[in-house]
């Protein structure tokens, strides 16, 4: 069974989960969170993030010890999945050796499962490689596990082979799921996956496309259309190779990051019809009632995959001027984003993270926080990031792009509800947006809160209250 829903640890939630006693979730809380996602919300898969966070590498053992009655009925590795997201040594030099530790934990987890289930059922058999840019990176992880983790069991230690002494290393191979985050990697996804699959006998291949970082780097509309083109080309690769390709898309709560909320499940399913797995981030899980979350998860599980549609080259010609305007506006706003981001609360305990552009991500020469705090900061200023770059496009061009980005007008309307016209007084380049805002109904309380932030009253309480109104932190 290939999961339809993947619970993630992306902290875009406003409200703190009931099972944690602190505003920031740590390793023990995340073990409980995995069980809650599986047992209450009905989510199929938990992404276990070893990339950039303090997490518990004994999660499988703890799940079996604490919730054995549940996992006897719903088997981890069969009905349910736990999938680590590992560091990419090509980019994350400080975390590089953590890749080895993570891969070493896979056979150990299989030992726990063998004792628990009485059969060979590895609970972990795939890993997600972030910031993938080439098939070589994927093959390195694949071969590292195959030859140096599982393969070392046949080497001799003094007078005995390793597996004879400390037991078999199982599974013998793992799948590697590329996570494509940059424009070049997303648009080259099909070619990279084709190269990676050469010479391998696989039953299927999962491919993960990011939504948040591309939006932050290139603007909302570009992020959606780049992903949609990649999905169409991956569909063609599936037909070409005769191997099932199962896309995953990393959607969050804000329209800027995917607009994946219980209220908009139908919209996202229609936008990405051939996606197999959708990420369920923290806002989806904790900023709505469990009843609404469960109903939405069930709807995703019942849905059937459709066919991706092509995106014409003309769309990408229009995007060139959109991205240029987005970059100009972002550079002007960067100092203010950084200032407000200091007051956006953290919901997870993170290590120093070296991401696509470093921990303070550099976008068009400007150091910026990561996507969730970036989005939260702009909303707190009354400048929803969905609206940046829009003034470069004519109505005809927007209508044309809306034929391929189906939820474009819905997402723009949502964003304008939280736009503060006073922002145009401080940032004159936003005046075209202030003129457009007259066509939309603004949320009055959100307007009051963001006015105070714009005038220099930057406080966490204001940021959190505004987030509660719109239904997500970032």
From TrEMBL:
UniProt cross-references to InterPro entries, sorted A to Z: PEP_COase_arc-type, Pyrv/PenolPyrv_kinase-like_dom
Reaction catalysed by this enzyme: oxaloacetate + phosphate = phosphoenolpyruvate + hydrogencarbonate
This protein's UniProt keywords: Carbon dioxide fixation, Lyase, Magnesium, Pyruvate
Entry's EC annotation: 4.1.1.31
Cofactor: Mg(2+)
Entry-linked NCBIfam families: PEPCase_arch
Purpose: Catalyzes the irreversible beta-carboxylation of phosphoenolpyruvate (PEP) to form oxaloacetate (OAA), a four-carbon dicarboxylic acid source for the tricarboxylic acid cycle.
Record protein name field: Phosphoenolpyruvate carboxylase
Biological source species: Thermococcus indicus
Higher taxonomy: Archaea, Methanobacteriati, Methanobacteriota, Thermococci, Thermococcales
Gene for this chain: ppcA
């Amino acid at each position: 069974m290939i999961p339809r829903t993947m619970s993630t640890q992306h902290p875009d939630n406003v409200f703190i989960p009931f099972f944690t006693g602190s505003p920031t979730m740590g390793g023990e809380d995340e073990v409980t969170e995995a069980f809650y996602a599986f047992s209450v919300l009905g989510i199929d898969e938990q992404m276990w993030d070893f990339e950039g966070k303090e997490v518990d590498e004994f999660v499988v053992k703890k799940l079996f010890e604490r919730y054995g009655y549940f996992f006897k009925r719903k088997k981890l590795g069969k009905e349910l999945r736990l999938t680590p997201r590992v560091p990419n040594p090509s980019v994350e030099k400080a975390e590089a050796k953590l890749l080895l530790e993570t891969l070493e934990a896979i056979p150990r987890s299989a030992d726990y499962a063998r004792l628990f289930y009485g059969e060979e059922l590895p609970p972990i058999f795939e890993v997600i490689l972030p910031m993938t840019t080439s098939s070589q990176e994927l093959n390195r992880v694949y071969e590292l596990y195959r030859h140096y983790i599982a393969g070392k069991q046949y080497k001799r230690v003094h007078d005995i082979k390793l597996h004879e002494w400390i037991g078999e290393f199982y599974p013998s191979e793992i799948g590697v799921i590329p996570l494509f985050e940059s424009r070049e990697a997303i648009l080259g996804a099909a070619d990279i996956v084709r190269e990676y699959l050469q010479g391998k006998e696989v039953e299927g291949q999962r491919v993960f496309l990011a939504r948040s970082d591309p939006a932050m780097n290139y603007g909302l509309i570009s992020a959606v259309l780049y992903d949609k083109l990649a999905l169409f080309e991956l569909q063609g690769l599936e037909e070409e190779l005769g191997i099932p390709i199962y896309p995953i898309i990393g959607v969050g709560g804000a329209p800027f990051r995917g607009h994946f909320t219980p209220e908009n499940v139908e919209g996202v399913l229609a936008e990405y019809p051939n996606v197999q797995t959708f990420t369920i981030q923290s806002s989806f899980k904790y900023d709505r009632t469990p009843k609404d979350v469960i109903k939405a998860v069930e709807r995703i599980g019942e849905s059937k995959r459709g066919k991706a549609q092509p995106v014409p080259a003309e769309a990408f010609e229009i995007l060139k001027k959109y991205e240029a305007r987005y970059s100009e506006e972002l550079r002007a706003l960067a100092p203010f984003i950084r200032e407000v981001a200091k007051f956006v609360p953290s919901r997870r305990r993170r290590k120093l993270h070296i991401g696509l552009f470093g921990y303070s991500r550099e976008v068009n020469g400007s150091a910026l926080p990561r996507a969730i705090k970036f989005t939260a900061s702009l909303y707190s200023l009354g400048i929803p990031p969905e609206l940046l770059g829009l003034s470069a496009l004519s109505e005809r061009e927007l209508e044309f792009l809306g034929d391929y980005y189906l939820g474009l007008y819905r997402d723009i309307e949502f964003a304008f509800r939280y736009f503060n016209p006073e922002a145009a007084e401080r940032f004159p380049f936003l005046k075209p947006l202030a003129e457009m805002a007259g066509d939309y109904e603004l949320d009055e309380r959100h307007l009051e809160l963001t006015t105070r932030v714009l005038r220099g009253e930057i406080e966490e309480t204001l940021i959190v209250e505004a987030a509660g109104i719109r239904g997500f932190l970032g």
